[in-house]
Design goal:
heterodimer, A: 330 residues, alpha/beta, Rossmann fold, 2 domains, 7-stranded mixed sheet, 5-stranded mixed sheet, 12 helices, globular, B: 271 residues, 6-stranded parallel sheet, two-stranded antiparallel sheet, 9 helices, 8 strands
């Protein structure tokens, strides 16, 4: 059985269920308390769990992200919420030099079971410091797991896995998806890390799409299907660990790959996927791997500028058509 | 030593890039510490942490830290966990004069004072941030005054007087355990050597080091014990010799320990 929930509701369900089951779990961040978070994820949780466990913090990202690590090292299971992923930069030392390395530097004697939830993506003219998709920063930091859910069901299942995992997890929630609804299974379930979801089977080209780009890829796949072009759409769901085998298997079948990611082009998650596939599937590729990413610019304010910079369905369609030139589809 | 002597099992310390003393004072094993400093498989962190990252959670040592000031919010977080789980432990958070200029210092003191966390902030003011003397890196002399900004007690003590440090720490710890929140204790002291091995420390004015060496805390404490008839000269000498012998033995033991297998570098990234 399932119900229809928004992403925000699904995330809240995961948080509440886990916090009821384990008293060591608490959440802290800016405006998560009585206000319920600016994207409403923690709405009502202050009333149920109280201000100790649904803890408003000062605007002090390095302070409370660092505090999450201190609590985790000695037995707590904190969840830190960064209102915007852009603000991770303010806490970057704690994320990169402290949280990611605590276990390794101790020779495996320390655990840091914490989740840093943050928001990614452009949501309409919030400009360069509130619109970034910085998940590549964290994929490039050994010691962190990185989740990038695209559906309410995966938000709930992956967040439960993140909370119960003994490693630090950066959990990237797309702002534009918070109020998008989807079917969410009833009851307690966990979505495993490192298992991609093949959203649509196809034979002519593979599209690996990240976070909200999954929805755009599925829309393009619907459109092209009417011309007999069958795209296989894969949502990796977690970037670390990455389900490489599912991607390789798909590309070996289709011979073509486009990676679609809202992160900017250079040094991106898409670049890493393209690189690995180019090596592992070299003999199977019938065209160069294409990347559809944000441009290598800060995210601009003005709507037409923002739309130009963020990867759109048209951009994916063009990329797919470019690698299918001369291919026999239908 | 004056700080850690106050602490009990169930208390924690966070340390700095200069953390060997804190480590030993909190109960760390010198042999395993030396093996870690030498990068050996049997070191505390299997050779992956080294001098700047020694941790031993079994002794409450959350870890040394290579980033100046980064341990301060971590200490606040450990104190938060102690408070939320109803334990009466405290966290002693060591850092230096230069770290008090980092944002993390101010963020952590704000959090800890706001939430009345059981943490004692210990500033070892050794007068230098690498080569930059305190009067060239901040416009104050007493870092303890920064406590005023957070509504918590701040106290300056002579860091070369172990009993003065102990007394200040005892007061601050009592307050923390009693639920009254953090304190800032500034210990005035001095770094005898350069910032790192091989630093000739030419930035010091002539005579400064020699003056501070006269105030060697070990020497001063020994003299005080003798003056008060608690030990005699012979016993004082024996204590110092036995401590030196213990460290030399640890060093010799560590030098015999095996190197880690290179591929062990791939382990311990994740649980």
């Amino acid at each position: 059985m399932s119900r229809e929930l928004t992403q925000a509701e699904a995330l809240r369900e995961a948080l509440c269920e886990e916090m009821r089951a384990d008293k060591q779990i608490f959440i802290m961040g800016e405006d998560v308390g009585p206000h319920g978070g600016i994207f409403t994820v923690t709405k009502g949780m202050f009333d149920e769990f109280g201000g100790e466990r649904v803890r408003d913090t000062p605007i002090s990202e390095a302070g409370f992200v660092g505090a999450a690590l201190g609590a985790a090292i000695i037995g707590g299971r904190p969840i830190a919420e960064l209102m915007f992923g852009d603000f991770a930069a303010v806490a970057m030392d704690q994320l990169v030099n402290q949280i990611a390395k605590a276990r390794y530097m101790s020779g495996g004697k320390v655990k840091a079971p914490l989740v840093v939830r943050l928001t990614i993506g452009a949501r309409g003219s919030t400009a360069a410091q509130h619109s970034q998709s910085p998940h590549a920063w964290f994929m490039h930091t050994p010691g962190l797991y990185v989740a990038v859910p695209s559906t309410p069901a995966d938000c709930k299942g992956l967040l439960k896995t993140a909370i119960r995992n003994d490693n630090p997890v950066v959990f990237c929630e797309h702002k534009k998806l918070y109020f998008v609804k989807g079917q969410v299974p009833d009851g307690d379930y966990m979505t495993p890390f490192g298992v991609a979801d093949i959203k649509r089977q196809g034979k002519h080209a593979t599209v690996v799409a990240i976070s909200i780009m999954v929805n755009k890829a599925l829309a393009v796949a619907d459109k092209l299907a009417r011309e007999g072009i069958e795209l296989e759409v894969i949502d990796p769901r977690t970037l670390v660990p990455m389900d490489w085998e599912t991607i390789f298997k798909s590309v070996r079948k289709t011979g073509r790959l486009v990676v679609m990611d809202e992160g900017c082009f250079t040094g991106s998650v898409a670049a890493e996927i393209a690189s690995k596939v180019s090596k592992e599937c070299f003999d199977y590729l019938d065209a160069p791997v294409e990347r559809v990413c944000a441009t290598d610019t800060p995210i601009p304010f003005s709507p037409p500028l923002e739309e130009f910079v963020i990867p759109q369905e048209d951009d994916l369609e063009k990329a797919v058509r470019s690698i299918l030139v001369g291919a026999a589809c239908a | 030593m004056g700080v850690c002597e106050v602490l009990k099992d169930g208390d924690f310390v966070t340390s700095t890039h200069r953390g060997h003393g804190h480590f030993l004072a909190k109960g760390g094993d010198p042999k395993l510490m030396m093996a870690e400093i030498m990068g050996r498989e049997t070191g505390y962190c299997k050779g992956k942490g080294g001098s700047m990252h020694i941790a031993d959670i079994s002794h409450g040592i959350i870890g040394a830290n290579g980033i100046v000031g980064a341990g301060i919010p971590i200490a606040a977080g450990a104190a938060l966990q102690l408070q939320m789980s109803g334990k009466d432990g405290v966290v002693a958070c060591f850092f230096g004069d230069a770290a008090s200029n980092q944002g993390t210092f101010h963020e952590a003191l704000n959090l800890a004072s706001l939430w009345k966390l059981p943490v004692v902030f210990i500033c070892e003011n050794n007068l230098y941030g690498i080569s930059v003397r305190q009067d060239r890196h901040q416009n104050i002399t007493n870092i303890a005054n920064r406590a005023i900004a957070y509504g918590i007690p701040g106290e300056v003590v002579d860091g070369t007087n172990v009993l003065a440090v102990y007394d200040a720490m005892a007061r601050a710890t009592k307050r923390a355990r009693g639920g009254d929140g953090p304190s800032l204790v500034e210990c005035k002291c001095y770094r005898w050597l350069g910032h790192h091995a091989g630093d000739p420390a030419h930035y010091r004015p002539a005579g400064e080091l020699e003056a501070w060496k006269e105030r060697c805390p070990v020497k001063l404490f020994g003299e005080r014990l003798i003056d008060n008839g608690i030990i005699d000269e012979q016993q004082s000498k024996q204590v110092l010799e036995s401590a030196a012998a213990e460290m030399l033995e640890a060093q010799a033991w560590a030098a015999q320990q095996p190197w880690p297998l290179p591929e062990k570098a791939l382990e311990d990234v994740y649980v």
